[in-house]
Amino acid sequence: MGCKVDTLIERHSLTVPVPEYDSVNEYLVARWTGSDGRSADGYKALTEWFNKRLLKRLYEEHDRDTVTVHLDREYELITGEETLHRDELAADLATDGLDIDEIDSELPSWSTMRHHLKDCLEAEKDTQSADTDWETDTVRMARERATEKAQSVLSSLASKGRLRNGEQADVDVQVKLSCPECSVRVPFADAVERGYVCETHVDAEPDESMREQGRNALSLLAVPYGLLEGIQTAILEDPYLVEAVATAAIPL
User: Fold this and answer.
1) Residue 145: its pLDDT value, please?
2) What is d(CA 176, CA 18) in angstroms, rounded to the nearest whole number?
3) Which of residues 100, 129, 158 is at a domain's end?
4) Where in the sequence is the domain holding 105, given as residue range(s)?
5) Residue 186 bridge partners (DSSP)
6) What is the pTM of this model?
7) Higher model confidence: residue 43 or residue 203?
8) Where does a domain end: 97, 129, 161?
9) Are residue 96 and residue 139 in the same domain, yes or no?
10) pLDDT grade, residue 251 (50/70/90)?
């Protein structure tokens, strides 16, 4: 049995709407590796691009409107949770001979795209040469800001008599990444240096419920949640959970 991505490309005669690429596979490899001179795209971005191209072709095959704004919205509904809006779309799709659940199951996941790029196409990406300065700088600045906020809070508590010698404390803010599949937790810098968070689950597709639980847990931390959310969305392509821990050493 062939690769799911290749099967879909052939079955629906998928093409790239850009003249410099001869095929979808050529486009995927160029965009993933960045060999075309532009910043490389990750699995998630390429999966979404491919799925929307596939959805557009399915719509064309059934004479359905393919206006981009409608396509983007309906793609989110098709791949999203069960809602009233999704049910309404399902009924509308049915009038054009399309089944929403069949479409959803047809769309490849990011792990399938990863398999296609690395195993089927044997594409290689030089992770060491990838530009990650802005990501690490973002985390560094977030840590510095969180440290300043924590020090300000400690000073305020000390002035109110609620925390003795609080203004003299040294604040240490750490950013750690947690595997969504197990209890492995490592410092951000270590994960970036070795290229993964958890060796056991490096190729696993994350469970959405666990990711949501992780986001909820972050809101309970002392560091401002908005700051943590910014770190979480900016750091890495792979959807690992981010945990920021602020510790203060108060002299006795």
Assistant:
1) 85
2) 40
3) 129
4) 4-129
5) 177
6) 0.55
7) 43
8) 129
9) no
10) low
